[in-house]
């Protein structure tokens, strides 16, 4: 990729949710201190309909089930906010009869930084339409997010005040991420806007105004997420924790 000298980007659009980008900026600024925990779950329920026919259930076309479709986004978010994942211990399951791809994955992960976490993804969480939720705990505070309330970031600071607690930040202020591309403060954005911000970022990179990394995902980020997803499968088969080698650098 480097030798080809082309701009490349992997469409991990959740990096372009304003609240997710704000979380990254708060972490970079040291606002929650040293990160200890990352726990995330991406839950949908449309896979519970066994009459549903889609390319997403064909291993030839889709490659995998909830792992590639949902867990890949969780892995990228984990890498984006916390850093590289070093090892995983996972359970991968197909519950639906006749289905040829996975329905769900549950994994415990360890980051190179020493932080530990959990990653879950399922298409069988009845009532959960698109619930991508995560929480990060650091030595100075915590951050929490729910895709079904994507304009909001929940922030806790261990600042000693008696009335301390999580506060909900509406991430639409003029100094918040992507504000220059968005409506005025309080005019909330939606899932589709993340793709607008993503394409703006990529086209700006092609025009030489910014680089794709670190705020956009490159194809190398896509590859690294795939290595982690492969390790979920390997770990589930072996029953052991799998170290991730990242064979391409
Ligand atoms: N958050 C995300 O980044 C995100 C979310 C959803 C889907 N996706 C990805 O977007 C892609 C599409 O997903 P979807 O849910 O819209 O799928 P879909 O099945 O609803 O739509 C796919 C479309 O592609 C068309 N198509 C298939 N083969 C084609 C071909 N050879 N030439 C031209 N058209 C062809 C189909 O007719 C269909 O209209 C997938 O790669 C999926 O993984 C990403």
Which strand order do you get reading across the main beta sheet? Answer: 8-7-6-5-1-4-3-2-9
* Secondary structural class: alpha+beta
Q: In sequence order, what are the helices and strands, one letter per element?
A: HEHHEEEEEEEHHE
- Profile the largest sheet: 9 strands, mixed
Radius of gyration: 18 Å
Q: How would you name the CATH homologous superfamily?
A: Dihydrodipicolinate Reductase, domain 2
The number of distinct structural domains comes to 1
Q: Level of helix content?
A: 25-40%
CATH class: Alpha Beta
CATH architecture: 2-Layer Sandwich
Which shape, going by the Cα principal axes? Answer: globular
Give an overview of the whole structure:
There is one protein chain. This protein is an alpha+beta fold and 249 residues long. It has one domain: Dihydrodipicolinate Reductase, domain 2 (2-Layer Sandwich), CATH 3.30.360.10. The chain is 27% helix and 24% strand. The protein has 5 helices and 9 strands; from the N terminus they run H-E-H-H-E-E-E-E-E-E-E-H-H-E. The protein has helices spanning 18-28, 59-62, 66-81, 191-206, 219-238, and strands at 35-43, 85-93, 104-111, 116-122, 131-138, 141-146, 152-157, 167-170, 242-243. Helix 3 (66-81) packs across helix 5. The structure holds nicotinamide-adenine-dinucleotide. The site of nicotinamide-adenine-dinucleotide has 3 residues, from loops. Nicotinamide-adenine-dinucleotide is lined by residues 11, 13, 55.
Brief description of this entry?
It is built from 5 helices and 9 strands. With 249 residues, it is an alpha+beta fold. Bound molecules: nicotinamide-adenine-dinucleotide (NAD).
């Amino acid at each position: 990729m480097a030798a080809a000298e082309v701009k490349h980007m992997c469409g991990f659009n959740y990096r372009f949710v304003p609240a997710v980008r704000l979380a990254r900026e708060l972490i970079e600024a040291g606002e929650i201190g040293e990160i200890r925990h990352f726990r995330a779950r991406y839950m949908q329920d449309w896979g519970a309909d066994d009459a549903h026919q889609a390319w997403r259930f064909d291993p030839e076309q889709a490659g995998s089930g909830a792992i590639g479709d949902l867990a890949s986004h969780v892995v990228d978010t984990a890498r984006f906010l916390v850093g590289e994942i070093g090892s995983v211990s996972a359970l991968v399951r197909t519950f639906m009869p006749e289905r040829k791809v996975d329905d769900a994955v549950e994994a415990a992960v360890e980051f190179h930084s020493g932080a530990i976490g959990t990653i879950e993804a399922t298409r069988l969480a009845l009532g959960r339409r698109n619930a991508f939720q995560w929480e990060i705990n650091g030595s100075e505070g915590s951050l929490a997010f729910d895709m079904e309330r994507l304009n909001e970031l929940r922030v806790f600071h261990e600042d000693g005040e008696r009335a301390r607690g999580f506060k909900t930040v509406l991430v639409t202020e003029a100094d918040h991420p992507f504000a220059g591309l968005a409506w005025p403060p309080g005019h909330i954005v939606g899932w589709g806007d993340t793709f607008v911000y993503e394409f703006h970022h990529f086209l700006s990179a092609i025009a030489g105004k910014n680089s794709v990394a670190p705020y956009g995902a490159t194809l190398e980020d896509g590859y690294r997420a795939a290595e982690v997803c492969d390790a979920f499968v390997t770990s589930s088969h072996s029953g052991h924790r799998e170290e991730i080698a990242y064979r391409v650098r």
